[in-house]
Protein: Pyruvate, phosphate dikinase
Organism: Streptomyces venezuelae
Amino acid sequence: TSESVKFVYDFTEGNKDLKDLLGGKGANLAEMTNLGLPVPPGFTITTEACKTYLDSGEEPVELRDEVSAHLDALEKKMGKKLGQADDPLLVSVRSGAKFSMPGMMDTVLNIGLSDKSVTGLAKQSGDDRFAWDSYRRLIQMFGKTVLGVDGDLFEDALEKTKETKKVAVDTDLEAADLKKLVTKFKKIVKTEAGRDFPQDPREQMDLAIRSVFESWNTDRAKLYRRQERIPGDLGTAVNICSMVFGNLGPDSGTGVAFTRDPASGHQGVYGDYLQNAQGEDVVAGIRNTVPLADLEQIDKKSYDQLMQIMETLETHYKDLCDIEFTIERGQLWMLQTRVGKRTAGAAFRIATQLVDQGLIDEAEALQRVNGAQLAQLMFPRFDEGASVEQLGRGIAASPGAAVGKAVFDSYTAIKWSRSGEKVILIRRETNPDDLDGMIAAEGILTSRGGKTSHAAVVARGMGKTCVCGAEDLEVDTKRRRMTVGDTVVEEGDVVSIDGSTGKVYLGEVPVVPSPVVEYFEGRMHAGADDADELVAAVHRIMAYADRVRRLRVRANADNAEDALRARRFGAQGIGLCRTEHMFLGERREMVERLILADADGEREDALKELLPLQKQDFVELFEAMDGLPVTVRLLDPPLHEFLPDITELSVRVALAESRKDANENDLRLLQAVHRLHEQNPMLGLRGVRLGLVIPGLFTMQVRAIAEAAAERKTAKGDPRAEIMIPLVGTVQELEIVREEAEQVIAEVVETTGVDLKLALGTMIELPRAALTADQIAEAAEFFSFGTNDLTQTVWGFSRDDVEASFFTAYLEKGIFGVSPFETIDKDGVGKLVRDAVAAGRATRPDLKLGVCGEHGGDPESVHFFHEVGLDYVSCSPFRIPVARLEAGRAAS
Ligand code: ADP
Ligand code: MG
Ligand code: MG
């Protein structure tokens, strides 16, 4: 089959849709090449080759010949050979996976330089300094990434040379200094790696390719993938790209740019430029960059060309792009582009801006945003008016309001956050080794680097608050403190950072609600002025989502107040009203009496007392949701939850007994607590079982619902109550409860003279219920999938315990990428849901189907529920906009 395999693609052969095979970088280099943009020629080794290497530990046999053929072609095109002594072709060997993993994997520049070709390069370029600088960079990068030498050894040697020569920056070093440095670097390699730096250019290239393959599986790459939910088996492509040089003097340089502001979405010139520099100098913050706008003064021709290219890219990709470019002696070269990451707010703004520009339609705009971004926009922000000392200001790199204790290294960030502290990770700049610390921190603050620095890019990707490049801050990691003017901030001092404004405060700043929430609450309208730009964009996209979605969205709400808020947020009913909350507070005593009742009479009295109170709750709820369905779940939790804690009560009784004044009621309570104590309460006397075992309990609740509905009807309201029986495992349970309920409803109709139609249905939250859904549908007018309990019982996971005990280990071992309590397990739990939907509808075609539980507000799960054909999802009021948006995305 060797004829059908193709492991290498020239840049002219690929295109942007081949990301699986060529990685994002390779696919887009090909796309730019074919657009006629100035891309240095090169070729891409596919992810398939990488996967073969990772699986077998060896490059596929065909790879060597294919690489040779493409290298030959490249050498012909460039008119020089790789590493040729008098005029060397140099290349970069660059990683590039399907999904961008900024700074996670390896890239080596200047491959092809050797003791011989460095002089050839010097002669050809007429610049000794440049040639030796490139060579020392190669040994440094190659030594670190390919040969695994500690990078600090090179850095230290470089620093020392700078000190001896009394210069501040590397560009001030002369050719002779760099030449000496090369000798030092080669010695470091020899001692540390136990081998000479390879002089054969092809060997350099092959080793670099292999090391890029291997960089897919470094710990930090794995951690990043887990965090970003990127599958672990994709592998990386490798790009071989002929070198262009930004370090050839002041008319050369390198930069990064966005086609529009990734924080606001506004069009303009956003980026950083660094003169006389190569590759990663910009991101690493070695020297201070200048804003991209300054390039207009430095090199007008290249600047204009760059602006032109950025417009071409935006129109072509129909989206914000970020780019890497290099200018070599006045000649502009494009080295990378991709659809750029952006903040949540910018995602909404850009999507509507692009609609207005006629580049995309509304359906596409809906796909450009997601529920996670919307949720992020609903976080509170800092109160502008608060009088807290502002420490400084940096670049607003990733929005949000974060408050925490200052820590200056990742290790402490992780340690403190494990013990429950909120921390802000403060660094001069971050690098991939800081990833764990960044994950652990509430927010990230750096004193160096711009919007494209490592900290900024990674934080935006994680949705974490970040302020970067706050240059007034003197960060001293060794002494674990920073100074700002006269103020010293020690480790442990509280700081607040605002990722939307870039402001940094000493102390805790109070927070205010987000404008998006204010808008959903109806306290702010989608006007046109600048402050409302975001709200206007959200408004438009939500309206579109509502127009196209099929799933209805209901709320989980237990009282009128929550119900009203849910309604403002767009709820189309209540999918779950938990009645247990109506049994707490002052009513607890009545419930205690109910539980303690020895005789029927006592129990009936207790129930009689509860009835009017419950009824009043429902009257208020039905009024709040007038005209919309309200699903009321009859009492579900085990009764011991309403009784005092067993240990506390035992101690109280024991103490009282020792004083000989034991209280009769406490003694009875203690007995009841013992009687009701269960080893596995979640699998015990709860749900429908309570209704069957405690006479009068469910009928009291049904009566309260029916009387409340009758009262609302008499008041000309439109109550739409639905009665839901929890934890049913067999249709027999449901039939008994149903019969009793129907009788009570008939009585209420009789006494009030109001005609009532109350739907009766059940939760599907036990595997047996799902498996016998066809039978259960005989007695149920609706199903509501209780996916929390269903997940618990299908997996046999106690949801109250597992997250704390072994889920971390499961997530680390990749058994699942995300907790099944967070995102529905489609293969297992989801299969039961899918089958139960079909079986239920087969029995009763007009069966209403919904889901209540955390999954109802989880974006990925919402798509699943859409796909299996539910009628609605129900979630907490705050998640409703998210569910509406995702239901729209699922349908369009
Ligand atoms: P990353 O994915 O970490 O950004 P890249 O492969 O893009 O890594 O390369 C790192 C840096 O080197 C970037 O700044 C890039 O622009 C630069 N670079 C890569 N290849 C070349 C090349 N052929 N000529 C000049 N600079 C290059
Ligand atoms: Mg790059
Ligand atoms: Mg349940």
